[in-house]
Amino acid sequence: MTVSEHTRTSPLVAVAGSDGPAPGEGTRGEAADRSIVGRLDAILAAFEDHDRALSLGEISHRVQLPKSTVHRLAEQLCSVGWLQRNSGGYRVGLKLLQLGGVALQRNSLRERAYRHIYPLAVRTGLAVQLAILDHGAVVYLERVVLAGFGLPTRVGGREPAYCTALGKAMLAFEDEPTRSAALADMPRRTASTITDPRAMRAELEAVRRTGFAVDRGEGYRDLACVAAPIRSSGRSIGAVSVSGPLGRVRPQALIQEVRNVAAAVWEGRAAPFPPLPAAL
User: Fold this and answer.
1) What are the pLDDT digits (tens) for 226-246?
2) Residues 6+ apart with CB under 8 A from 163
3) CA distances to 136, 217, 277 from 214, in Å
4) Burial status of residue 5 (CB atoms within 10 A of its CB: 0-12, 13-18, 19 or more)
5) What is the enclosing helix (H) or strand (E) of 207?
6) Crossing angle of helices 56-63 and 36-45, rounded to 10°
7) Is 85 helix (H, G, I), strand (E, B) or coil?
8) 172 and which of 149, 207, 236, 247 could share a cystine (Cβ 3.0–4.6 Å)?
9) Which of 239, 215, 261 is nearest to 117 (CA)?
10) Is the pLDDT confidence value at 60 over 80?
11) Do the Cβ atoms of 169 and 229 come closer than 8 Å?
């Protein structure tokens, strides 16, 4: 097949055309976002952290593109299985979910971690999660929930790093530009959320000294979490946490368990941690 033939038959390429942005069409400020790839990416990103269907108007508002443009692109995404359309609007298609599952399955960190985090969930009776840091957000790679309670997180979901133990455990070992970007905007999520950058920097310094982070209802009012970074060459490549209802999480009893599992996930255990403080 020649290039011209492929262009005529590919449903995604056919959307682009050669006439540039539609009249009156807004941009997101970057040249890439005016391209077909940028628009498709923006539409798919609108579904992050949303399991429900989104209406055409909701997607248009999120991506700041006209409804006519969104409709044209969304229909093309439906034609290749990346989105699905029903009476409630559009939602993520099976093909995209399948591709996401393949990406997670191929993640070596996730594969190495599972044999450690499942026993941790059994021993503690709490939920155990594995995550990485991406542009100031925690991305959940795996979770094991054996206890009789639910969590608002999901595999593949994202949460702000500053208000989670997982995020603080990883931010503490990041470079200064990454930390500064993550702390630039810290809206209050609950009464316990740390919103002062100076207080957060002090907290991250404590994480560097002790090797663990605690979230006492900072992201979600009734949930607590203890996390430890998975470190390689001094940097954090991920983190492990134990989470549960605020009244059931006892940090002092969980810290060593979580740190040991985080160290075991990465081949070559980290250096010994300093003694734990007398009280938390």
Assistant:
1) 999 998 767 888 999 999 998
2) 186, 189, 190, 193, 194, 215, 218, 219
3) 18, 9, 13
4) exposed
5) helix 197-210
6) 120
7) strand
8) 207
9) 261
10) yes
11) yes
